[in-house]
Amino acid sequence: MTQQKNRAAQETQNIHLSDIPNLETGQEKFPEKPSYLKYAFANPYNLALLGGAVAASVLTLNPFIAVAAFGLEGLWLLHGSQSRFMQRALWDPIFNREKLEFDKQHRMERVGSLSQYGQERVMNLIGREQQIQQLAAQNPSFTGNLLRDELAKTSILVNSFIDLGLTCARYENYLNTVDVKELTDEVARWKHYVDANADKSSEIEFQIANKNLIVLSKRIERVQEIRRYLNVAYGQLDLIENSFKLIADQIVTMQSPSELSGQLDELLDGVESIKETAIETENILKTL
Q1: Where are the domains of the chain?
Q2: Alpha-helix residue ranges (DSSP H) falling in 13-143
Q3: 265 near 153, Cβ under 8 Å?
Q4: I need a surface site. Which of 87, 189, 256, 261 has the fewest CB within 10 A?
Q5: With contact defined as beta carbons under 8 Å apart, do 240 and 153 qualify?
Q6: Res 147: pLDDT
Q7: pLDDT value at position 249?
Q8: Are 255 and 141 in contact (CB under 8 A)?
């Protein structure tokens, strides 16, 4: 218990409640599918050719050059954006690079909201993720799409680790604003009043006193539920860290991607279960 309190103090050190984002709210997302039309138009080669043709038309006072250029541009946008070959060879790799860069940028923005201790944990986990990717690339059993699909799960887990860390920090900050001893003393005071004045006070006084007792008791129950969530969430964070270390130890000798897949899928299932619980915990916070 003492170790967990120390961890909570480290997680929330130098963090203000307003600094921690609520991950249930809407946030900027990267497009799920690539815009092939955009890639066909907004690439430097196409823009340079189109701009050169328009410039030549202006300099020579020959409008037919510009008309021809725009006509060819229309054909290029129609066929270049829909070509399966162009999509596989050019547009999809560009989309994947942009998505990777987007994820890295937003990942680091979220990491910046964590405490120093939390940031160190995330950076260590990212380093372990990179180690797993390098070792997997050296294992001949991991090739092609199978390797990409499995390693994509490690990135999801790192992002989930960050989200979970932010949620825990936000809940810890809330709990730091609640004096449980004061609540307990208030419950005892109202309970004594209700027991001692059941037959002495007026009906409305008794009802108000009883309502105060009920509300305060519910607040204590809700705080206990939040604390139980944090206990599970902290355990899941440790499990992700320890599992990444184990995978790094094992991945060189793995004979099949399914061995890696099983461990990662189990972690993802645990994370999803925690996320579902987090929704319930968010509702508890709203009632408080």
Answers
A1: 1-21+116-288, 23-112
A2: 36-41, 44-60, 63-82, 84-86, 92-111, 116-138
A3: yes
A4: 256
A5: no
A6: 62
A7: 82
A8: yes
Task: State the average pLDDT over residues 174-200.
Answer: 84
Residues with Cβ within 8 Å of 36's Cβ and at least 6 positions away in sequence, in order, are 81, 82, 86, 87, 91
Burial class, 11, CB count within 10 angstroms (exposed 0-12 / middle 13-18 / buried 19+): buried
Would you tell me how many other CB atoms lie within 10 Å of the CB of residue 213? 20
Instruction: Answer whether 229's CB lies under 8 Å from 175's CB.
Output: no
And the tokens for 207? 């009802």
288 Cβ partners below 8 Å, 6+ apart?
174, 219, 222, 223
Residues 6+ apart with CB under 8 A from 5: none
- 279: pLDDT strictly greater than 60: yes
Task: Identify whether the C-beta of residue 142 lies closer than 8 Å to the C-beta of residue 150.
Answer: yes
pLDDT at position 114: 82
Provide the terminal-to-terminal Cα distance of the chain, rounded to the nearest Å. Answer: 25
- Token pair, residue 99, equals 């998505």
* DSSP result, 71-102: HHHHHHHHHHHH-HHHIIIIIHHHHHHHHHHH
Task: Give the HSE-up count for residue 270: Cα atoms under 13 Å, Cβ half-sphere.
Answer: 19
Which residues 6+ apart lie within 8 Å of 127 measured at CB?
A: none
The pLDDT of residue 270: 79
- Distance of CA 227 to CAs 49, 171, 178, 221, Å? 62, 9, 12, 10
Highest mean pLDDT among 146-150, 241-245, 255-259: 241-245
d(CA 197, CA 206): 8
13-70 per-position pLDDT tens digit: 444 434 434 444 445 677 778 888 888 888 888 888 888 888 988 888 888 888 888 8
Residue 44 to residue 286: CA distance in whole angstroms: 50
